[in-house]
Amino acid sequence: MPSLNRLIFIAAAIGVLVGWLIGLLPDDAGLRGGVLYASSLIGSVFIGLLKMILIPLVFTSIVVGVASLQAHHQVHRVWITTLLFFALTTALAMLLALVVANIFKPGAGMSLAMFADAMQDFEVRQMSMPEFFQHFLSGLFKNPFQAFTNGDILSVLMFAIFIGVALVAGGQRYQTILQMMQELLDMLLRIISWIMWLAPLGIMTLLIRLVAEQDVTLLLSMLGFIVLIFATTLFHGAVVLPALLYAVTRKSPLWFFRGSREALVTAFATSSSSATIPISLRCAEQNLGVPRRIAGFVIPLGATVNMDGTALYEAAAALFVANLIGVELTLVQQLVVFMTAMIASAGAPGIPSAGMVTMVMVLQAVGLPAEAIAILLPIDRLLDTVRTAVNVEGDIIGSLVVQKLADDGAEYQGA
Length: 415
Ligand code: ASP
Known about the structure:
Pfam families: SDF. The structure is a single chain. The chain has a single domain, classed as Sodium:dicarboxylate symporter (Proton glutamate symport protein, Orthogonal Bundle), CATH 1.10.3860.10. 79% of the residues lie in helices and 0% in strands. It has helices at residues 4-24, 30-71, 75-104, 116-120, 129-140, 144-150, 153-169, 175-195, 199-212, 216-221, 223-249, 253-270, 273-287, 292-305, 308-324, 331-347, 354-365, 373-406. By secondary structure, it is mainly α. It is globular. The longest helix has 42 residues, at 30-71. Bound molecules: aspartic acid. Aspartic acid binds next to helix 17 and helix 18.
């Protein structure tokens, strides 16, 4: 029996192949309908299971992580290193996008008329920068029960941080609660190991649907842009991030990719960093040896605020839209794109196509028409695959870097 890791890989390859074959069948073919229906059933059960475990997992892992860090007086160091790492890698990703987009000028020479209909029928929900901040800040603190039921990760995360700090501040008094949280986390990780057995089938079926439902003519018309985005995102994921990892920890990229591939493939297939959290945590702890207190803190936080792939895409796509409508963005305008894409990627939740929603803000910041999103939406499901995988990669590498720079190696019992 091949290892789970290998099974996931084989299943992903089969998924792409079958999806491609199914895509060749006519729309009304019975086989096509049947396979797509079965795929969507199995795929949604897999995603459903990941989502089922997600909120309790994020809550307990942040509580336990923060409590353990606080107990070791490491919390400030870990916070600062984590946020600096997130900001640095996001900035690098966007810089890369801007350089590449300036060199290759995607969209220049393409006819806007091709997209006129799509843009006309598209209604955007405009959100200005002040509105965005208001929305973001008011979303941070909510009734925890409401946040739990709505699957609102950011506010669950904030509540968990308070509980983690309070547990340590209370010392012996809350020992039972802390122990309960540790046991709960342990138990949830056990459930995740069961869910993982469905991962090969889940990933295969998600990829069958994804590939079969692509509109090939549309993809071909945008091929230049798609290839540019894929290549740049992959460069960031295969060269920039591993180089950073090596520079700080001396760990080889091969070792990293071997240990994290379950999470990367899941992110690719689900297009959701949040749904991938359970698997990212498992990879970081079990395969890459990141202590639970670090991984349990850095990964859920990263999945919500650290999105290198999304930032890269938003910056490149803004330049694409500008080229398409024949506007040359000045250096200052590109700086505005840089800053807004940084905020927009941090504000995007880790769900499919979330980057598209926050991108409206980037376009508006430099006066580009928000309706242009309509041009990008049909190809977004495809682009979201690699982008999400790189988002997740950034979080796992973040946990390794933070471990190296901020962890003094002290062990916390149970964590
Ligand atoms: N799907 C991405 C993620 O979950 C967010 C995005 O749309 O860029 O990380």
